[in-house]
């Protein structure tokens, strides 16, 4: 009996160690940006909105540079940056604003893929569409099925939150794609080189 409990504990510890190692690997592979730039961008994020959205992830770009805006009912999404990174991916970021009278969770923005169900209300259902190249790029995910995107908690009426989502990069010559999530209309955005 004791041997069985010990083996079960060892398996659990091994699984935790492997998961931690994979998480560090995924985090380390996302590089290519200037660390000083990342700190400067994140310090400009609005304070006091801790329960609005998961603030982990890449910087969300400058709010004064609007690439695109789309609206679905009371929810407005603003895209403030779309950067091609050296790691072979594109990071799209911006703000989401709840203009309604009730809280919003982002449930209609999550992916319907079974693997991404653990993400809950998030941008896991977002995509980039290259109409010219006739390709659709889905949000990247780590080995545990977590999307490389913002996971929302409650966004109260009148509140805004920063968001980001990372996608595989389209070919180098592709600079314009359509960003789409949930019931929002496809929104054309320009991809900038980093």
From TrEMBL:
Q: Where is the signal peptide?
A: 1-31
What are the record keywords, sorted? Signal
Mind telling me what this protein is named?
Lipoprotein
> What's the source species for this entry?
Streptomyces chiangmaiensis
Disordered, as annotated region: 33-63
What is the taxonomic lineage of the source species?
A: Bacteria, Bacillati, Actinomycetota, Actinomycetes, Kitasatosporales
Q: Which domain of life is it from?
A: Bacteria
């Amino acid at each position: 009996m004791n041997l069985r409990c010990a083996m079960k504990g060892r398996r659990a510890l091994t699984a935790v160690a492997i998961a931690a190692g994979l998480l560090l690997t995924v985090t380390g592979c996302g590089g290519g940006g200037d660390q000083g730039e990342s700190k400067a961008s994140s310090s400009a994020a609005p304070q006091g909105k801790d329960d609005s959205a998961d603030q982990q992830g890449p910087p969300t770009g400058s709010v004064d540079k609007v690439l695109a805006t789309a609206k679905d009912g009371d929810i407005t999404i603003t895209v403030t940056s779309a950067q091609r990174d050296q790691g072979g991916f594109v990071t799209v970021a911006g703000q989401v604003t709840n203009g309604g009278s009730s809280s919003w969770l982002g449930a209609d923005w999550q992916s319907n893929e079974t693997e991404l169900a653990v993400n809950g209300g998030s941008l896991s259902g977002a995509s980039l569409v290259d109409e010219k190249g006739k390709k659709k790029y889905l949000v990247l995910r780590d080995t545990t099925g977590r999307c490389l995107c913002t996971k929302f908690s409650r966004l109260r009426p009148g509140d805004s939150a920063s968001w980001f989502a990372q996608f595989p990069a389209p070919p180098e010559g592709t600079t314009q794609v359509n960003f789409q999530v949930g019931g929002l209309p496809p929104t054309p955005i320009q991809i900038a080189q980093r």
